[in-house]
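S.,

Sequence below, as promised.
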Amino acid sequence: MRISVSTLPRIAEYARNGRVVVFDTETTGCSWYDEICQIAAVEYVGGVRARSFSAYVCPTCEMNPWAEAVHGLSADFLSEHGLAPEEAMRQFFEFLGNDVLLVAHNNKFDMRMLDGECRKFGLCFSPQGVETCDTLALAKRLRPGLERYALAYLIDALGVDGVNSHDALDDALACAGVFFTLINGNGGMP
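The prediction came back faster than expected:
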């Protein structure tokens, strides 16, 4: 969903009374042929944290060394602890469900990675009533003039509890803190 004056009330309504799922991915790199190696999400219903999801994924492509240096997920660890990509995505899509606001920081990247997984592994992602929100765009709209808009910077600038550790669950929780702080216009979660 494009962040505008007309869409902000709908986003706020989801935050107060609807379902919001905040998610993050860790990947083998940033190119079109890279894959998801961890996906995590946190669900909020009526602004209250309800449940969470996290899965390591065993990629079918090589891990870029700089990506491993960022998130610390090695090919050996993922081959031992990761799910097959099809199973991990099935579980994530089941967790997501329908009629939800799907939130991520720089969601173009995460949505592109989800789309890539679907295309590569022949998966269908067609939930009903899913709208998306990007906390990067939301922060730029609601807090213009900040020095930076990286997740780690926003956590500090907005006084949000959380860390940008490059663990998908930690980052999804931090992103949720940024989202609700921006929407509620205060320094804390609902």
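Helices lie at 8-17, 65-71, 75-81, 85-96, 107-121, 135-142, 151-158, 168-184.

Coffee later?
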